[in-house]
Specification:
260 residues, mainly alpha, two-stranded antiparallel ribbon, 71% helix, flat
């Protein structure tokens, strides 16, 4: 195991990236443990940070501070100081976890942490961990190495071709995301065939694409919306329930009533 880690992470210069990855996981596990202890009103746990006057300092504030300190310090530390760059990367990862864990609060500008909308934060953390984990393993976005080599070999024309291919790839990613297929779009960065499938197939019924295209007063649009809704109920809903079960096993139940 140590030999694999040294070959895959240390020798390839990805130790700071691995430390960021570990920092995100540690930060998320710690803060979720903390908020679950606070919600359960465990007496021996410190509780929320409330300096007075009814002010509750959310942990996203500490996350922003950690990210700023680590980010600025990393700009000062020379590249050959790998140990300190790795420490700062871990701190940046912890700060990122604290921010992403309250991503839903930032998105909705209200305290939806334990509500249905709060699950967006867990999705954001899972996305960050998944993408970073792939990068740690050396799995880079598909075609990037060959594109750079082709561009360098062919000169100016090569760069134009590489730019066109990259733009097409990015366009497929955006189209897939607009159709509501978040995981397909993100994993498609590494497996391009998923982008083609995601871009061609029907959008999810509540996605921006469905609102733009499937709610038109035409029989074809109505048929697409009906088929998309059927797929959502029959195929996606069981998978979503399984995902929610796993998320709440780790992060707690998001069952608080919505604020009015």
């Amino acid at each position: 195991m140590s030999d694999w880690f040294h070959r895959t992470v240390v020798e390839t210069g990805r130790l700071p990236l691995f430390c960021f990855f570990a920092g995100v996981i540690f930060g998320f596990v710690f803060i979720r443990f903390s908020v679950r202890m606070i919600r359960a009103q465990v007496k021996w746990w410190p509780g929320n940070v409330t300096p007075g006057g009814g002010l509750h300092i959310h942990h996203v504030v500490f996350g922003v501070v950690f990210m700023l300190v680590a980010g600025v310090a990393a700009l000062v530390v020379p590249d050959d100081y790998v140990f300190w760059r790795s420490v700062l990367a871990a701190l940046f990862g912890i700060g990122s976890a604290l921010v992403l864990d309250e991503f839903a609060l930032i998105l909705h500008l209200e305290d939806v942490y334990w509500s249905e909308k709060g699950r967006t934060s867990i999705d954001a953390v899972f996305v960050a961990v998944s993408v970073t984990g792939l990068l740690v393993l050396g799995i880079r976005p598909a075609g990037i190495d060959s594109l750079m080599l082709a561009a360098a070999a062919a000169g100016g024309i090569g760069w134009v071709i590489a730019g066109a291919i990259a733009s097409t790839h990015l366009g497929l990613v955006l189209l897939t995301l607009v159709k509501g297929k978040i995981w397909t779009g993100l994993i498609g960065l590494f497996i391009p065939v998923l982008l083609i499938v995601g871009a061609i197939r029907l959008a999810r019924p509540h996605s921006p694409w469905a609102r733009w295209r499937y709610q038109r007063p035409t029989p074809k649009a109505a048929a697409k919306l009906a088929k998309s809704t059927w797929r959502e109920v029959q195929l996606r809903r069981p998978a979503i329930k399984a995902k929610i079960w796993f998320q709440e096993l780790l992060a707690g139940h998001h069952d608080a009533p919505p604020q009015r």
